[in-house]
Amino acid sequence: xxxxxxxxxxxxxxxxxxxxxxxxxxxxxxxxxxxxxxxxxxxxxxxxxxxxxxxxxxxxxxxxxxxxxxxxxxxxxxxxxxxxxxxxxxxxxxxxxxxxxxxxxxxxxxxxxxxxxxxxxxxxxxxxxxxxxxxxxxxxxxxxxxxxxxxxxxxxxxxxxxxxxxxxxxxxxxxxxxxxxxxxxxxxxxxxxxxxxxxxxxxxxxxxxxxxxxxxxxxxxxxxxxxxxxxxxxxxxxxxxxxxx
Amino acid sequence: xxxxxxxxxxxxxxxxxxxxxxxxxxxxxxxxxxxxxxxxxxxxxxxxxxxxxxxxxxxxxx
Lengths: 245, 62
What we know:
The complex is a heterodimer of chains A (245) and B (62).
Chain A lengths: L2 H6 L16 H12 L2 H4 L14 H23 L1 H6 L1 H30 L8 H23 L4 H17 L10 H30 L36
Chain B lengths: L1 H14 L8 E4 L2 E4 H19 L10
Antiparallel strand pairs in B: 1-2
């Protein structure tokens, strides 16, 4: 089965898929997903040679830190505030949650600097950059509501300072930083969900467009496709800096 | 456990005395805590090191 045959066949030659079902929305959605992210691109075995640089490691370091943040946050949610405030193990997991967040932001900012100075939005990667920016903003919101969920003098101080800022925007009526229950729900339900979805889309866009290559030393343009994926349906093709996202 | 906790508390407490107001740097309207400045410095060092230090390669174009 070749990639070209996938593009031509409405059933994408998948076992158990009937030709007469090709007009159903499920078939169309599945085919669109396969065209956009064929398995070999979604989970590649090799990366281009230029990825062999430490600066490319910080994206996955950010993801790893996020995994620890989520895992420790789930433990804190299961065990509850008394546990994380009083017991030694609770203190330890609470500290793991804090320091994984610190690592997450440090890695993310170094990843941001690297992406910025490589102009990582080149070659139809604008949406990847935009979703990265959204992920950063949503993460900042999640961290701020985390400060408000500490249940200590620090959170009280931050809450009373933040209320003036939020009230000056007019949003204080619906987003009350002195309302602990509301802030906790934002911190452990809504914002993590937003961060998870945005980061997921960001990673899928990275897989779809490939990792941005370094600036060519002697050519004004740069190759756009991840090596070995030329001709794949949905491929970006050769593009210039002005390529669309 | 308690011995380790006591030792680490003593050593870290000697290095980082948290029982006093923090140090801040003022530059016009910008005010930064020294702790945050240190973190930013470490991030810049990490960034420069990530660019300059060669990545270990085992051949091929992996």
